[in-house]
Amino acid sequence: MTERTVKKSIKELSPLDVYKLLPRITPPCGECGEKNCMAFAVKAVTREVALEKCVPLLTEKYKAEYVQLRDLLAPPVKEITVGIGDRSVKIGGKAVQYRHELTYHNPTPIAIDIADEMPDNQILERVKAVESFRYNYIGRILKLDMIAVRSSSNDPSRFGAVVQKVAEATALPLILCSFNPEVIEAGLRTVYNKRPLIYAAAENNWNKMAELAVKYNCPLVVHASEDLRMLKSLVKTLVEYGVEDLVLDPGTFVGEGLANTINNFTMIRRSACGGDKLLGFPILGAPIAVWKERTEPKELLMWKEACLASILLTRYTDILIMHSLEGWVLLPNIIWRFNIYTDPSKPVSVEAGLKIFGTPNVDSPVMITTNYALTFFTVESDIRSANIDCFLIVVDTGGLSVESSVAGRYLTAETITEALRKSGIEEKVKHRYLIIPGLAARLSGDIEQLSGWQVLVGPRDSSGIPTFLKDRWPPKKE
Amino acid sequence: MANNNRNQEDKGASIKLGPKILDLLRKIGEIELENVEINAEEIEIWIPTLSPTILQQVPPSPEIVREKPMGILEAEFKPPIQAHSGKILEVKLGATKLEGGSRGKTVTIGGERSPAFYLFEEAQPNPPIVSVDVFDTEVSLPKSIRMHVQEVLGDPSAWAKLAVDKFNADAVTVHLVSTDPLIKNASARDAARTIEQVLQAVDVPIIVGGCGDPKKDAEVFQKVSEVAAKERVMLSSLTPDMAEAGILGDVCKAAKDNGHVVLAFTALDLNRAKELNRRLYEFLPKESIVMDLTTAALGYGLEYSFSIHERARLAALAGDTELQHPTLSGTTNAWAAREAWMKMGAEWEPRELRGPIWETVTALVLLLAGVDVFMMMHPAAIRTVKDVVKNLSSLSYARHMDADWISIRT
After folding, report:
1. Which residue of A has its CA nearest to B120?
2. Domain covering A2-73, topology
3. Is the N or the C terminus of chain B less surrounded, counting Cβ atoms within 10 Å?
4. Mutate to test the interface with B, among A65, A130, A260 (most CBs of B within 10 A)
């Protein structure tokens, strides 16, 4: 217990704490790919590199140090793996409560539900919809991750058959949902070697669920509605029972229960980051709960589910179960998920200057944009995906978007003229036509006057660049 | 006992405890605490970790075969309450007749003593509010917003009235876009007249939005401050550019003399936010400053806005007095995201829902980061934010036992 109580939190850990326990072989062996043990230690502390990359550390000689380091670097929220092989997902593994402290790890997987009473064709359609769902967000493909099969029938044989059908149709990791151990076992028998997540052990079924989790070596969700003391007690019991891969569910409630839900999630995560081992497990959120209000119109329930999912993603949820498959419901959530799991220390701006796309020549288009990272990445992604050969001049607007920098006078005829001059573009093309963002249209006159270039006002959104160039490039001589 | 201490020391050494702490551990194991000379800070840190179990080392015995528990093993749970030394200032918007203005109602924002909606620590003192955006000129709006305000476009008074009567606005923001030298270059006098008309049309607090040109805004804000004297409007916004141009003092003086509130705008940079606040303290009472730390749209940098707001609020609660101001989000910026308005494939339709959900999610995320005022446009987004604020503002003591979504038949 001593080590646990005095263990430094991950934020306080210095590379030196790690370095001291590394093999420090001279000259450095370099097997991890780093220059030396100190460089490795720096990355290990920020979790950019796994401890297991240090080959000598895994030998018998350093066993004690390895165990110590593993404990030192273990995040306060345990990392749990669901599923097997390439398609498996990792949940939890959080090192901190707040995003700005250290990059969040393991983006919250979203599981879509299938009820065992759904007709066969609907089941297969839903599986297919989950599998084929994808969105290209500034060059990254965003997807859905899991399927939650739930037993609305409470009939073991029916559930077993549906789980089998789903498992045959997809390799995505599964969550098997029922409070009835017989139903769960019927499902487990058909996917016993695929490590699904079992939902859920509760006050009245925990011992049977624990047996199943041990027997089939599966992670287990622990459920206690709005009772963190009971939740913790169940965790203590299950860990003692030998089930160590747990996920916490204090219940997801909507409407006037929302405050309780958010406070429970927050208390769990803060306790875990404060060293409470029994609450140091991933949290499950269930936006699907909105669908209990069956009298309300479907679109309203979808709307509520989209909102609830975004709230839960923001407040520490490590795995989500949802019902809606509508693109407009899922899109804001998969994008927000992507966003909060990015590195918080990544700067808001990109380097200003001339960027070259493809193999432009003296007649290729010249465009300008700002150095706000998201503006630049969006424009870059649109240019690349359309395979356009062109020059893009990135103006230093202090990391502001086009609209804000025009309003705030960071993108002006003066700054643009200066950027044109510095870029050396005048030697690279023989024309003098500059395409500016549609949102900067009002600067056209001033730019022409000051720079001597002729301005073409481009689209308001860079998605319109390909069409714009098709219609307007090369420019007609006036 | 000696042996135990020996173990403790070895163990301590292996985890790099300082020698001072080792001494402490040894002494406390043997003697009364009163006899030990140590500083108070160390006591605070170390005493709680010294439970008797620590000193009774379990000998490395052969592995005990664990018996499976027969019943639930009880564990204690205590809400992880933390002490916060700082408090967010309360800022009042609007003034009633009694106070020299003409508002039917005023709104107070801020006053938080804990992070947003940490009700297990503190009740939410003042619910976050929505101020609805109104433009004094015809502006290009996404179709799904336009359809709700079609009839009042170009008429700020009618638009403000619609915002209050139909959208349930807590406040109204009048954006004086027409004053932009690069658009209509309307005069400060014309702008002031618009504000007077809106003040007559509605009785909620008013936020006065400039065009973004620091010099012109300074001129407009001074004029508006005079004609709206004692109405306690909020001037949106005062910027570091105004400070650089040497015109910040004039605007602040006009705001102070006429009893208004100012919005301090900085672009995703807490150091600049603090710097601007320090400038403002030279002229204005702290209770008349609100911060806009910049709202980027979902998908276009919202995570930066989110983390800036979380950091600002946590620092303020930890005692950073230069950040203890309520915050405002220009949530309408969400519509800058192409996903909010663009026609996409059939699987992402309808746009009429995708747009407002974009604005809603942008607001909800910042609500959880501690934002106090949301400038918004779409009626569905406004309504949702107000509903969520209500639902997040009080714990419900009726326990919700029915968590069972397993048996839902859809």
Report:
1. A263
2. 3-methyladenine DNA Glycosylase II; Chain A, domain 3 (1.10.15)
3. N
4. A260
Q: What is the mean pLDDT of residues B274-290?
A: 98
pLDDT digits (tens, 9 = 90+) for A365-406: 999 999 998 899 889 989 998 999 999 999 999 888 898 888
- Domain-wise residue ranges, chain A: 2-73, 79-340, 353-472
The greatest distance separating any two alpha carbons of chain B, rounded to the nearest whole angstrom, comes to: 89
Binary contact (A99, B306; C-beta < 8 A): yes
Quickly count: other Cβ atoms within 10 Å of residue B196's Cβ.
15
What is d(CA B150, CA B146) in angstroms, rounded to the nearest whole number? 5
- E strand or H helix that includes residue B389: helix B379-393
Instruction: Indicate which of A336, A385, A397, A400 best probes the interface with B, i.e. most B CBs within 10 Å of its own CB.
Output: A336
The pair of three-digit structure tokens given for residue B5, joined into one six-digit string = 């201490």
Residue B45's pLDDT is what? 36
Helix axes A181-190, A206-216, angle to 10 degrees: 10
CATH match of A353-472 with 3.40.50.300: no
Please state the pTM of the whole predicted model. 0.86
Question: Cβ B299–A236 below 8 Å, yes or no?
Answer: no
Q: What is the pLDDT of residues A192-236, one digit of tens each?
A: 899 999 999 999 999 999 999 999 999 999 999 989 999 999 999
Q: Do A307 and B360 touch (CB under 8 A)?
A: yes
Cα Rg, chain B, nearest whole Å? 28
Other C-beta atoms closer than 10 Å to the C-beta of A131 total: 15
CATH of domain A79-340: 3.20.20.20
CA–CA separation, B19 and B238 (whole Å): 54
